[in-house]
Amino acid sequence: MATDVYDSRRGRVGHTGTVASRYHDMKFSGTVGRGQAAFDSASQAVLSLRMHRKAGVRMTKPSETVRLGDVIRLKFGVGPIAVHGSCDVVWLADEPRRRGFRYRTRPDHPEEGEESFVVDWAADDQVVVTIESRARPNRLIMRIAGPLGRLGSALINRRYLWAVRKIVASEAAAVSHTDRTEPE
User: Fold this and answer.
1) How confident is the model over 141-166, as pLDDT tens digits?
2) Cα–Cα 20 to 30 A to 21, which of 68, 132, 174, 179?
3) How is the chain split into domains, by residue range?
């Protein structure tokens, strides 16, 4: 991942120029499985946005998996209280033991900032998903929500992690079931 930069006029600056002191940082990380199959499953869940959909966020994108430069549109909630927004994919990892992406919000998003979703396959065989965000309210309703808005963001990020765990476990169970039912 890119490192932070220092700008003498504005202080510490984030990955793409966000002033760190005005933004709220969040990080959630957890083991979702072990081995190649778990890594592949978790990577696919993240890069296809299946993780988001399972967590209850409707996402649309122009391709099967996330690509650099894609515009992702989201909707969370129901009817008149639904939250809508869009994001630009600004970073992509496609390495043998690391996959993921980062997006930056667009002006129509309720928050201003960035969020990354990264799957790492560690040397000890654990597959770890890390979700990091740096954001601040972009709409009046989010500014009024204050700490409740940040709590909502934290809850949805935890739900993303839960969704990847469920997807990986479900696919591992399906493979295990298939292995038991094949004739010898």
Assistant:
1) 666 666 666 666 778 889 999 999 99
2) 68
3) 24-181
